[in-house]
Amino acid sequence: xxxxxxxxxxxxxxxxxxxxxxxxxxxxxxxxxxxxxxxxxxxxxxxxxxxxxxxxxxxxxxxxxxxxxxxxxxxxxxxxxxxxxxxxxxxxxxxxxxxxxxxxxxxxxxxxxxxxxxxxxxxxxxxxxxxxxxxxxxxxxxxxxxxxxxxxxxxxxxxxxxxxxxxxxxxxxxxxxxxxxxxxxxxx
Length: 188
Hints:
Radius of gyration: 19 Å
Structural class: alpha/beta
Strand order of the largest sheet: 3-2-1-4-5
Number of helices: 8
Largest sheet: 5 strands, parallel
Shape: globular
Number of strands: 5
């Protein structure tokens, strides 16, 4: 009797943090999963404040770890509800909360040949890049599978500019905003 070895189902492992860029990546990953007939695996990776080393040194951290994990789970569920209207994406796969650095967690979970890692590739200034490492860069350097870096929504730049003007108490040019919103393609 011959045994047929079916290749494992492809998975789209998407990093979710609750940020606008990660929500855009989640939408793109869901579209790709539907198109490819693949599983969708949203992953929210978290670390204790100050990192794992600081948490191991503090006796209070042992008490707080379950609370931090609960907060991470709530943030993941909120992102799923924001995108899909419920915590069910309507696609096969599972949502995961992983403890550890986001890039490392995504690379460890996406360990199959047919997996694809999906991350948001937001606009980042030099100072931001110097202070916080890029999850996308880590995944590109260490992943054994393809990595899809999703650019931010065109609306994100307009919203950030409006927020800056509001913080600085400058007048908001609603006509310019309206023109920018009109140029954005539907579904962006």
